[in-house]
Amino acid sequence: MASLSTLGARIYRGETAYDFVGRRKFWYAVSILLVIVSLTGLGVRGLFLGVEFQGGAVFTVPASAELSTDDGRRIAEDASGNDARVQELGSGALRIQVTGLDTDESDVVRAVIADEVGLEPTQIDAELVGPSWGQQMTTKAFQGMIVFLVLVTIYLAFAFEWRMSLAALAAMTFDLLVTVGVYALVGFEVTPGSVVGLLTILGYSLYDTVVVFDKVQEKTRVVHKQSRYTYGELANQGINSVVVRSINTSVTALLPVAGLLFIGTGLLAGGMLKDIALPLFVGLAAGTFSSIFIATPLVVDFRLRDPEIAAHNRRILDKRAERGTGTPSPAAHGRIEDEGNGDAGETGGPEDTDAPRTGEGAATVPGPGNGGDGDGDSEYVTVQRRQPVSRSRGRGRPSGKRR
Known about the structure:
One of its GO terms (molecular function) is protein-transporting ATPase activity. Residues 319-403 are annotated as: Disordered. Keywords: Cell membrane, Membrane, Protein transport, Translocation, Transmembrane, Transmembrane helix, Transport. It is a multi-pass membrane protein. By secondary structure, the chain is of the alpha+beta class. Among the domains are: 19-48 and 133-307, Multidrug efflux transporter AcrB transmembrane fold (Up-down Bundle), CATH 1.20.1640; 56-129, Alpha-Beta Plaits. Helix content is 57%, strand content 9%. The protein has eleven helices and eight strands. The protein has helices spanning 4-13, 24-44, 51-54, 69-80, 103-117, 131-159, 162-186, 192-220, 231-266, 271-303, 307-323; strands spanning 48-49, 56-61, 84-88, 94-99, 125-129, 189-190, 361-365, 381-385. The strands form three sheets. A four-stranded antiparallel β-sheet has the order 3-4-2-5. Strand 3 (84-88) and strand 4 form a beta hairpin. Helix 2 packs across helix 7 (162-186) and helix 6 runs antiparallel to helix 7. The N and C termini lie far apart (58 Å). Mean pLDDT is 74; it is low at 329-372 and 374-387.
């Protein structure tokens, strides 16, 4: 099996192809497992909404107080009777957040904290956020997300087709559930910065999905003009054509976000950095996964319900059964050159001429039995490519005849 260092280059050059569509049931199972874990974390631990959403008070204790995070949490919870979150800032000061406090209660908690650390109450900054403002923030955030999803659905329905629109919505729903589930599992505070991060990763996930859909639509446009590949195989060609680009783009985007999350949060103790970086990091990874392993396979499942597509696939599979082969010859990803030994009626469409014209060797393609639409015994199979005879061979050379 090829090493990971060379697999991406081979996929990009068309020398090998992974059967994303044929293995879609496995990836559906992985996706459902991730959603179950996320919903379990959300149900068991729940989300800790910040004061911007619940209302409450934020106290900033200066570094001169030399108060530890555990002691600060204990003092705030004992004085208020509510849960408290404590964060150490880069300057050494502590940010103590207590939800559900009004003005009078905030003054009492502030006085207790000051007495415990030996400071005057005026030396501790207190910021009070009313619950009505938090409810308004929550409502506006949900309204913005719903409007975004509706506009995306309409755009994809016109730009591509309604099946791709539904598949993109399913992929974005997966991204949201996984990101929210991670928030619940790690116990991070949900702030307006978190909402900004969520909306950002929805846009990125949509971008990645549209790139894949564009190539899939280009490949499947000729499905009825050829009799070599099923719809699922053509869609699989589209995914393989852009998978390397998608992964490279995602890794490039994840590196600076990882710097914000781990360096900015761990070393610099940046609260806003953490609020934005966590949903970006999780959402970018989930968006790349969903655009490749969820969106296009769902489109294929939707299209297989079309009687014309189903009949087209049956004709192709019947022909292969007559020939005694489970895969199109010579390659399922449409990049290997036709050697001229197939049926004449099977060479229609642009996919037959999209082959490299130089070099000899072996290429790896989805293995027999999967047909691009089901499960097989092998993910890859190797076929031989033959160098065509150059038509310009011998041109410009002396013929050897005497004049």
